[in-house]
Design goal:
With 118 residues, the protein is mainly beta. It has no helices and 11 strands. 0% of the residues lie in helices and 63% in strands.
Length: 118
């Protein structure tokens, strides 16, 4: 199991920015990712990054959101710019391992609330 602790959520006005952090500890993992879930919706993928890079993004978010990692600190960041009210959600950090080319996210943080006001 990987322990994940998110921070950096909060309330921001539309057009503003936030940076989320996720500190990981425990067993090894191959990728860290960010997901989000708004009320009444399913959890959706936001972005992920491997230990040696290789960022991936949800197509609609690329350009506004940037994921980065600090291997020395076992921490991943999500820089969110030009935020919109529809970005309001609980943001979760997840750790995954790669098997047969697929990523299995099996450890999750508690989530951090992001609220964007119009």
């Amino acid at each position: 199991q990987v322990q994940l602790v998110e921070s950096g959520g909060g309330l921001v006005q539309a057009g503003g920015s936030l940076r989320l952090s996720c500190a990981a500890s425990g067993r090894t993992f191959s990728r860290l990712g960010w997901f989000r879930q708004a009320p009444g919706t399913v959890r959706e993928f936001v972005a992920s990054i491997g230990r040696t890079g290789g960022e991936t993004y949800a197509g609609t978010l690329k350009g506004r959101f940037t994921i980065s990692g600090d291997n020395a600190k076992n921490t991943v960041y999500l820089q969110m710019n030009s935020l919109k009210p529809e970005d309001t959600a609980i943001y979760y950090c997840a750790a995954g391992t790669t098997s047969n080319g697929a990523i299995n996210y099996d450890s999750w943080g508690q989530g951090t609330q992001v609220t964007v006001s119009s």
